Amino acid sequence: MITFEHTKTESSMNDKKRHFTDKITRRQALRYMGLGAAVIPAGIWLNGCSNAHKGGLSSIAPDINDVPTDRMTYTTLSRTGDRISLLGFGTMRYPTMEITTAEGPRTVIDKEKAEKLVDYAMAHGINYFDSAWMYHQGDSEIVTGELLKKYPRDRFYVATKLPGSVQSREDAIATYHRQMEKMQVSYFDYYHLHSLSSDEMYERIYKRWGMLDFLINEKKEGRIRNLGWSFHGDKELFDKVLDEPVEWDFVMIQMNYLDWKYGRVPAEYMYQKLAERNIPVMIMEPLLGSRLARVSRSVLEMMQEARPGETPARWAFRFAGSFPQVMVVLSGMTEIEHLQENIKTFSPLNPMTDNEREILAASADIIRTYKVIRCTDCKYCVPCPYGVDIPSVFLYHNKATYDSNIPDPEGARDAVFRRASKAYLAGYDRAIPQLEQANHCVNCGDCVPTCPQHIDIPGEMLRIDTMVQQLKSL
Ligand code: SF4
Ligand code: SF4
Known about the structure:
- The protein is built from 17 helices and 14 strands.
- It is α/β, with parallel strands linked by helices.
- One iron/sulfur cluster (SF4) binds at residues 375-381, 390-391, 394, 450-451, 453, 455, 457.
């Protein structure tokens, strides 16, 4: 049996006392729903377009001064003694830049900027780095390996994942060995069955092709120190994989205060199941891409009344990191300000109170009513063979929705409509080059199985393009 020991630093518990604020009851929290009457406390800067987290409505400026180097919160796993920073560095969102190749322009990782981020993370107590075969179209593992090479191997933990795109057992084994070369390691600290999302995929790769036995054997041989899985499937698949006669060392789930109750499989259900079995929990999407970094004014007001000056992102991270079974909370950090703010949140983590969870439960009830596409900008669906920039189309549409800039083609043709229509179309052309817009989707379906959020991508493309064409014709 796996035993699990989660030791937050003593200082985090002291901070809990120091930062304790007046209680807001659930009833008080609920009164904010649907109104904007409360006053933002003096000195709080409402930021309509934070560079920290794109999309959404309002946030406040994060405090990124005096980032501590020695106060990170760690979790210690009793089976291995691994002492892991509760904030993990997700390498899916390294900074990028455009280069020109013989085949045309290409977006690649900006290594210079990425190196600064990784070095800063290491210097401030982060020691967990999470990669995957498909991140940055294969480049994340290579760059992560290159950037960590200068550090002693026992100073960091690396994780990567077997992709669901492998075509055969031979391809899967070759991919696994190639990952070791790319990351320049002789063992993986944490290795995932990546993004389990359908029973067919699990049965085919891990049972019929025998990859589960292969990976268990790799663990016996010491080339995998911890074996687990990341999950995007339905409840039946979750229960089935959990019930396998395998000693799972960890499971990664999508957990945040919106998905706690409203996820496809509620995070609460998955977390409780894992806690019952004492399986360490890794968290992805604590901010749902960036959707929880900027919230509606009414949600922001509730947060500010309880904890003046605390950003929505920090609320979301504190929610994720406060559960005792959580071993690491992953964040993909593109800008140094993201990293600085997040390090401050976890140095040390100030655990969430029951009252604050009530506020977030009320916030989730509001946020779930936003009519947005559940895209987290993970980019698993790119490249589209027909050139559609799927995440950018969705991010633009979501931003317009958040900002109430979606004109209603069926609505009155008044001045407001004409202004909104013009603004939407101009912004659409600015945000997405014409050859990459929704009208280039031919409904080939290639992207559909890749989307961990199970979005009907061609359906949404048709919906957006129909609206765009209608607006253009008016
Ligand atoms: S369904 Fe549309 S968006 Fe998806 S891969 Fe095919 S053309 Fe691209
Ligand atoms: S559409 Fe799905 S796969 Fe593509 S970026 Fe969004 S969440 Fe990721």
